[in-house]
Design goal:
Length: about 450
């Protein structure tokens, strides 16, 4: 009997889709001897297959001096191997009717291919090969550093709103590595060495620090034979050191004036909230939807439509592996007073703590969140991504089956409770964008 057949197989079938708002798909879990977890979602309704390789490493697993290395590796992983140089890798994917991409976040780095069912082994072979045999050399490192630096310049350094987003994490956190974004700091990106990359790759891209999700028109038994063939011979490595730092409680509001070349003022505020497995996340997401979730939300309607003080209002109750941020951002229209906009944001947040939201607002928010969750899994690719995100953000992919009920169970009292607990001024970090004209900004920078 092969190794994968000896592994425990967990099969979960939840019935009753659509009207009942439940999930209706099967997940099989397999474990290779080298520690690689494999999740299979067999579904013959659409003749495509998604192969996703999830690595349990992101910017959270970096240290000062090498911030941005996880995202840099996302780029490096497309430079090819001896067996499959970059041109051959691309030709095999595109030439077989597929496409591929990747993303890096605080807690993971993920690569994927979408292929015709008959070509699933091509993608498995490609991912297994580059997980251990990547062409890491000075030439590839130098070229990708420049690509990443250009991306950082475009998305953050030269974008006032990207800069604001970075500043809220830089200032809200004092100890936990969420204080830097996956893009990393410019000086660190420039100084990352070849040895840094080799050390990071060996530990973080090992099979026992990753898992595969294969979703779509597959035969599970045949696919596991392919996985065993290509991944089975790969050796496990010593596990990476876990992130032990716990962010200390915030004891008072932080306010930062951020001077940046921009046309109009704006601000962003962040509140510390619990990690992704906390049941409070559901009520916090409902609160976010009521405040700034769409054009009919309280803040958008008040500031953009009625008073016409703001160009936009946006935000999120983020869900990460470790305690995250509930943040809100607003930008002023020409001539508007930023202090007035900020004060009205606090008024609406304070109102959540003292007055129950209406039954209509509550049900609307819950319906929206549940429907987006359910209908966000209509493709093989999006379903695999959702399963992977639950494994990363909540510590167990099985929690995906509790999500809809989590939203349904939220009450108006729950929203008031989490607003009082987390959305208070002592737990608040505020960054004010102070516009500077080009000449002044260029001199100071």
């Amino acid at each position: 009997m092969s190794k994968w057949k000896q592994a425990a197989v967990i099969v979960m079938i939840i019935s009753g889709l659509a009207a009942a708002g439940e999930l209706n798909f099967t997940i099989e879990k397999h474990q290779l001897a080298n520690g690689l977890m494999v999740l299979l979602l067999e579904d013959h309704s659409c003749p495509t297959v998604t192969i996703q390789a999830w690595y349990r490493c992101g910017s959270k697993n970096e240290v000062p001096g090498i911030t941005g290395i996880s995202h840099l590796f996302e780029h490096m992983m497309f430079k090819g191997t001896k067996k499959y140089p970059k041109e051959k890798f691309d030709r095999l994917v595109l030439g077989n009717g597929g496409y591929n991409n990747a993303w890096t976040s605080f807690d993971n780095t993920t690569y994927y291919e979408v292929m015709p069912p008959s070509k699933v082994e091509v993608a498995i072979d490609l991912e297994a090969d580059r997980s251990r045999n990547l062409a890491i050399n000075e030439q590839n490192l130098s070229s990708e550093k420049q690509v990443v630096l250009s991306e950082r310049s475009m998305r953050y350094d030269n974008d006032p709103f990207g800069s604001l987003y970075e500043q809220i994490f830089n200032n809200a956190y004092v100890a936990h590595p969420y204080r830097w974004l996956p893009i990393g700091f410019e000086s660190d990106i420039k100084s990352i060495t070849l040895q840094d990359c080799l050390d990071y790759y060996r530990t973080h891209y090992a099979p026992n620090n990753s898992f595969l999700i294969i979703s779509g028109d597959i035969n599970s038994k045949e696919v596991m034979k392919m996985v065993e063939k290509h991944y089975g011979p790969i050796k496990a490595e010593v596990n990476q050191a876990p992130v032990r730092t716990v962010e200390p409680p915030q004891r008072g509001e932080k306010r930062i004036q951020y001077h940046k070349m921009a046309q109009l003022p704006a601000f962003i505020a962040g509140f510390k909230i619990p990690d992704g497995k906390s049941p409070d996340i559901y009520a916090l997401k409902v609160a976010a939807r009521v405040l700034f979730g769409g054009e009919s939300s309280r803040l958008y309607r008040r500031l953009v439509y009625e008073e016409q003080k703001a160009l936009f209002v946006d935000g999120e109750a983020a869900r990460y592996q470790d305690p995250a941020l509930f943040y809100v951002m607003a930008g002023a229209v020409p001539g508007s007073n930023m202090d007035s906009i900020e004060a009205e944001v606090w008024q609406e947040i304070d109102k959540l703590q003292t007055e129950p939201i209406t039954d209509y607002e509550l049900q609307k928010a819950k319906n929206q969140l549940e429907s987006e969750f359910i209908f966000g899994m209509q493709t093989n690719e999006s379903r695999a991504s959702m399963v992977g995100s639950f494994e990363i953000n909540t510590g167990d992919y099985m929690n995906i089956y509790k999500e809809a009920e989590g939203y349904r169970s939220v009450t108006a009292a729950d929203v008031m409770r989490v607003a009082k607990k987390y959305l208070n001024s002592r737990n608040r970090t505020v960054v004010i964008l102070v516009p500077e004209p080009p000449t002044q900004a260029s001199i100071s920078e």
